[in-house]
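Marked as duplicate of an earlier ticket. Keeping the data here for the record.
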Amino acid sequence: MKRFSPQFDRHSIRQYGMAGVMGLLLVMGGLALKPASRSIANTPELLAGNRPQNQAKAVSRAAQRQEQSRQIRPENFSLDRYPVTNQNEKHWRNLLWTTAVVRPQEAFAADAIEQILSLGTRPGLSDAQKRTIDMAARVGTQLYVSNPTRYASIGNQFRETIDRSTDPEWVAMSLSGLANGGLSPEQIQPLVGRVKARFPKWATTIPLQTTLREMAELISPSTLPPLGDLLNWTIAPKQAHLYVLCQRDRTVLCQALLKDRNGAFVRQSNGQLWSVPLLLRSIHDLSSNFVRGETPQGVYRMEGAVPQPDDEFFRAYGQFPLVNLFVPFEPGAKQFTPGKPGPFQGSLGDYKRLLPPTWRNHGGIQESFWAGKAGRSLFRIHGTGESPDFFSGKDKNPDTYNWNPTIGCLSALELYNEQGQLLQADMPKILKALQIVGGKKFTGYMVVVDLPGNARKPVAMKTIETALRNGKLSLGNQPVKVSTSVPQAANPQPADLKPSAKPKAAESPVESIAIAPSDNTSAPAAEMPSVVLPDQPEINPNIRPLPIAY
């Protein structure tokens, strides 16, 4: 098999050993090293009943970071010493992952990646060699997008790949990397023409088709359909709907909103919309149509939670269960399409019918369909046992410093102090809300969408409320303030999976995909939704890691 396997399986353990698999899993969840000093300037109180996590202790994290940094030596990046062969695949797999984490500034790292990428124009490559080039292309994209001037040699190799490689995915990734590195529409256009001339059947190849659609959007951005139409639409009745509202700049936090099984948005006891900030950024700054890229926009099936893997994988996921998500065509879904058991196996038209009519021709919202078609899988919402400063290059947006990048998953906040004790975590809040709405084995849908604009803050709640009322969207409102401060500990209480004892309001209309979309009107302000949650659900400190389930 040539490409990166999106699956974590026993074969990976046999082939690469546990250390190599840890490298893959850590990206799936997001990483870190030391406790975030920015969040503990004033020593916060610990959560009552909290037990230390050994891998979150400062000594353990410092040792891990030192192990990563020690690998950044010229001799390790020497292709004379470590040529790209089947025997050296594990070496390059581990070293390139370390490069992604540390982002070394030394020229020898970029030179090695450039040399590896140059092999992509040679015939007769083995599958192991192709996998190494694949990884180099992803890390090369990460470095180039971060600083196109410093890593101009990688950009030059991307252009060489576009001109000479016969591999459509490498060509597509090179085009995407160059464009996301800051090219103007006038600079993108001739590259698009060159790719189409070399690959006249580009429309039949998923990487090229999706990348050229992305280029068309960069050259001439389309108008976003009414946000209210999407938020008021129901994919399937009597199921939870989680909406994750992002911006194209994924260094900005996204806002997650929840709609209950009656079709009403969940609110806190103070009347404000329930929301949780999530980071949907790929460590490689790679587009969503590639494995290890950003979380795609579009529809996901949500089917309960999977147990957190054991302590050996604590760094990847933290200590809480993970929300289980499926994209179209991914095996394992019990019922992706309403009324049809099993994974989604339909056409693009079938996928579009999951959306309101005004959104069915919006290209961005189709990303999860094409990601599944391309073989992406294992998307989750999870925290991370790693410290935020494990990753280098997080200075693009200081507001998101405490959230860690992934290779496609949705990253929730999870912070520990130097003694390995939990300070703050959003996964319990997410899990409790989903269980209140849908029961312990909740099911439903998640919809991710990028909103227009160049704002550097998450979308304001006021903006979302306006969209719910009249379907319009404007990012000109006062940006929401997402606090990363640690609340004081409360007395622990058993998790309560029943809704708060609030008067039940009239249920909002619920439509299935066969019925016309809502009229984009919301309930009067005096009415309350059928589920009201506490302002800050308490964290249950007694959750224990469970064996891996996939």
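See parent ticket for discussion. The longest strand covers residues 298-306.
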